[in-house]
Design goal:
With 187 residues, the chain is α/β, with parallel strands linked by helices. The protein folds into 2 domains: 85 residues, no CATH class; 90 residues. The protein is 56% helix and 16% strand. It contains 8 helices and 6 strands. The chain has a 3-stranded mixed sheet with strand order 2-1-3. Strands 4-5-6 form a 3-stranded parallel sheet. A hairpin with a 6-residue loop joins strand 1 and strand 2. Helix 1 crosses helix 2, helix 6 packs parallel to helix 8 and helix 7 crosses helix 8. It is elongated. 24% of the residues are buried.
Length: 187
């Protein structure tokens, strides 16, 4: 039996263009939340349903990218075929995590890049949080800081910029996120 954690299905959030892999754990959480909202009970078959659905996607679906709306409609269709109308009506996919690569934000910037970088970062945080992820992973912070500072090695000024960047990220998250259970990983 194959262990399924992440499928090869990529969903695109149409409002932001943000993309995320469909994750088994997120699908289970989304199904359970729909069941609890619809019936007040935890659906005991959510895990096996999610596993079977992802197996089907991996084995049979030709296109590996689809919109969030298409993905949700497919799941609602299957739920309705199983006579789970109420669960289908309340189903919304909640992604496991959104990823922001800070290095990619500095790679495209020109000479006055720091101001432009912070503006891009603020927009990226807003777009990532618009998908209501369970976690936000912000990666390549050291490389980003060295690029912003024009440094080849890590210096004291880099550490200060790092701290300022982390504080900026915290403020941006606080401005765009109402969720109290968001996990944030910055590395």
């Amino acid at each position: 039996m194959r262990v399924i954690d992440e499928s090869s299905i990529i969903i695109e959030f149409p409002d932001t263009g943000h993309k995320a892999l469909v994750n088994y754990g997120s699908l289970v959480v989304s199904l359970r939340q729909a069941s609890e909202t619809a019936t007040g009970e935890n659906w005991i078959h959510a895990e096996s349903f999610a596993r079977a659905l992802l197996e089907h996607f991996i084995s049979n679906v030709q296109e590996n990218m689809m919109t969030l709306e298409t993905f949700e409609e497919i799941i609602r269709f299957v739920l309705r075929k199983l006579n789970l109308e109420k669960v289908a009506d309340h189903f919304h996919y909640i992604p496991a995590q959104s990823i922001i690569d800070l290095d990619s934000l500095t790679a495209k910037s020109g000479v006055p890049m720091e101001i432009e970088f912070y503006d891009k970062l603020r927009r990226q945080v807003a777009e990532a949080l618009a998908t209501h992820p369970q976690a936000l992973h912000i990666r390549n912070i050291r490389k980003c800081v060295k690029t912003l500072r024009g440094a080849k090695r890590w210096r004291k000024k880099c550490h200060r910029q790092h701290d300022e960047l982390v504080e900026f990220i915290r403020q941006a998250i606080a401005a765009y996120c109402e969720e109290k259970k968001l996990a944030v990983l910055i590395n």
